[in-house]
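Re-running the complex after MR caught last week's input typo. The corrected sequence lines follow. Everything else is unchanged.
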Amino acid sequence: MSQYQWNWSVVLEQVSGTEEFYYQWLAAGLGWTVATALSAWVLALVVGSLIGILRTVPSKPVAALATAYVEVFRNIPLIVQMFLWFFVLPELVPHNLGIWMKQSMPLPEFTTAVIALGFFTSARVAEQVRTGILALPRGQKNAGLAMGFTLGQTYRYVLLPMAYRIVIPPLTSEFMNIFKNSAVALAIGLTELTFQMRQITGEYAPANPIEVMTVVSALYLLVAFSVNRVMALIERKTRVPGYISGGH
Amino acid sequence: MNLDFSTLAGAQDFLWQGFKYSLTLTVSSMVFGIFFGTLLAMARMSSIKPLSLAAAGYVNLFRSVPLVLVIFWFYILVPLLTGVDVGAERSAFLTFAIFEAAYYCEIIRAGIQSIPRGQIAAGQAMGFSYGQNMRYVILPQAFRNVVPLLLTQTIVLFQDTSLVYVVGATDLLGAADKVAHRDNTLVEMYMLVALIYFSISFALSQAVKRLHARIAIVR
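Corrected-run output:
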């Protein structure tokens, strides 16, 4: 450690043998991290909401199926799920589709990462949405039905608008988790931020890993902080007067 | 699509070694994580400002960065700082103990905060020192309140140990991956690993659910 040569400007240096600079690699990595997390979040919200709602409907078989979905996606490690989508699924689907997935699917690493991360997170979102719906007084659903709403309308206009507001804090931490979990996609070759860090500290600038790791960690902290602020803003904008933290 | 599990017989010793490593890493990280997490929680709630700020900084830092990144941190830093090449398997023990402490800390802090204030005052009135009060009055109740959360976090931890794969350690996933590439049985091996993780995590989470119903303190 005593002979460690500190060089904080390493990230500004040019990658030897190329026209590129290290900070450009890190910026590209950050771009993939954000793109993957945001796309997967859209998928997780849509699928997770649907599954969460299905877990609360009166039909027993439907609710049981939705519960099974949540258990499967919650009890297999994310990295294993990535491998299942990336390496196993193309072998299990019809032959031609498998060939297409392996050879001509656009952006294979990115697409797979978004799908794997999206479905993984959807099980967690489903749990939160369900919790939000169950937290509402039973009378709200009955009131909706008594007004002549169909079950679908009751969910759409009575239950969900309140349920989502209740679960904004836990959804915030899921949203922050999805940015962190996107780093797992380096295992299937997505060139996101941690992948770039490993590449730079491993092969290109092995003499200065601490500086590069510090910069990358700071970028993750920045992302976490920004997401937290955005969600706090949404929470403030959507709060309902008369509820806890709802103001007057 | 034909599945071929015939190579499994020859590989089972190697897979068992990997699985044992995964379990050892999980249990060791749980023990050290809960121990350091308890100290951190006490530090975070301390009235000594610098101590509570340092503990809060520690917890927020580790909760804001990806575990994969922290695994690389220690994998690269430990040999650099100590001059000894400890290898991926051993550096992971340090990584997980330090990383998980931040998560366990928040759970234990919630447990301590759920104890009515009067309990602390009662302990002090009995003449207990801070340490005795924590040891005999606060922590036993706090832990009892959060046992299900601690166990749920441990199931998450068990699944997260598979991430040591990224530095080439031979845990369950790492062992299966090596067998898969040697025998060209990627599909079979990954499905087997998924099934093992699912069975264990699912069974444990069902057990935690039942335990939760049984040990809840009735007030």
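None of the earlier attempt is carried over here. Chain B touches chain A at residues 1, 61, 64-69, 72-73, 76-77, 80-81, 83, 159-160, 162-163, 165-166, 173, 186-187, 190-191, 193-194, 197-198, 201-202, 205 (CB under 8 Å). Residues 24-169 of chain B form a domain with the MetI-like fold fold (CATH 1.10.3720.10).
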